[in-house]
Design a protein that fits this description.
The protein has 10 helices and 13 strands. The protein is α/β, with parallel strands linked by helices.
Length: 328
């Protein structure tokens, strides 16, 4: 089977690596997002899939480079013609960044499959892993769908689930799910290899059970203290490494101090408190508890603006915080 891989971010790399090493099928090209000027200036890798393609090509016995295509619009007629000329049997899409049109999908004999980081139909959209943690899910997984024109709405060919650890963040869960997705993609390819192209395939998603996982915004980082301690702890876990989470500490003189919260724990999360949400209710040499809409949030690791991350005891030694003071 001739496969064209569509991917940009790190979530797609394990699947891409496995497909490149397969013997039954051939990856004939990688389609990825173009690197903008800002990305070219960054020292870190701006496109993990491009880097993976270069490394795998260099390590191949023949030393031949895999064609890497980077259209500004994967649905543009010019690119669709270029894709059709590759004569793909299947498009494999993961962490790409664009929704493919019906015309683009039709360039391949079997259309396209997409590896998605949730148990569909829950958390359709751009940030499924983040929102699953944010909502307090204890189980998540990956789904491979046969693609249609509707966002993450095609029939589910296969899926795999995994528990979410109580202290797990997006930063640690995402690579776990990326690896978990490799086998389901291979299973989906086998299903399509023996498909007649006409019979119904996969499990139809229930639209009434669908939830949306929209793209994250910078203002999602604000800690709103009227929410419960458990909800805030989940938010802190969910939004690492971006957009992060922060609060502001008022100061007698000058502007409020911005404090990034990297790790926190809900304390008595179901117990109501008479304190105002955001109010400091407990201070010890190694403890700082803040009142919320329900329960207390114990800050464990923080990062004051312009400084390095530090445990809460180190922060308290250098930053006076008073009982009754209110974070906003």
């Amino acid at each position: 089977m001739r496969i064209v891989m569509f991917g940009t971010g790190p979530f797609a790399v394990p699947t891409f690596t496995r497909l490149m090493r397969a013997t039954a099928d051939q990856v004939v090209a990688l389609v990825t997002r173009p690197i903008d000027d800002a990305g070219q200036r960054r020292k870190s890798a701006a496109n993990p899939m491009r880097d993976a393609a270069q490394a795998l090509s260099a390590a191949s016995p023949a030393g031949s480079a895999l064609p890497v295509l980077a259209p500004a619009d994967a649905n543009a007629s010019e690119f669709v013609s270029e894709l059709r000329a590759l004569q793909p049997d299947l498009l494999v899409v993961c962490d790409f960044g664009q929704i493919l049109s019906a015309e683009c999908l039709a360039t391949a004999r079997w259309g396209g499959i997409n590896l998605h980081g949730s148990l569909l139909p829950k958390y359709r959209g751009a940030a499924p892993i983040h929102w699953a943690i944010y909502k307090g899910e204890t189980t998540t997984g990956v789904s491979v769908i046969h693609m249609t024109g509707k966002l993450d709405g095609g029939p589910v060919l296969t899926s795999a689930s995994t528990p979410i650890d109580a202290e797990e963040t997006t930063e640690t869960l995402e690579p776990r799910l990326a690896k978990l997705g490799v086998v389901p993609v291979l299973v989906a390819i086998e299903l399509l290899r023996h498909w007649d192209g006409r019979s119904p395939i996969g499990r139809t998603q229930d639209p009434s059970a669908a939830t949306h996982a929209r793209r994250l915004r910078k203002d999602d980082a604000v800690l709103k203290w009227k929410r419960t301690a458990r909800q805030l702890a989940n938010q802190i876990r969910a939004f690492q490494p971006w957009p992060g989470t922060y609060t502001l500490i008022p100061r007698d003189k000058g502007e409020p101090q911005r404090l990034i919260v990297l790790r926190a724990m809900a304390v008595d999360s179901e117990s109501p408190t008479t304190a105002t949400p955001g109010e400091v209710v407990h201070i010890a040499p190694n403890a700082l508890h803040i009142a919320t809409g329900s329960g207390l949030l114990a800050l464990e690791q923080v990062q004051p603006a312009g400084k390095k991350p530090m445990p809460i005891d180190a922060f308290l030694r250098g930053n006076p915080v008073k009982l009754g003071e209110r974070f906003v």
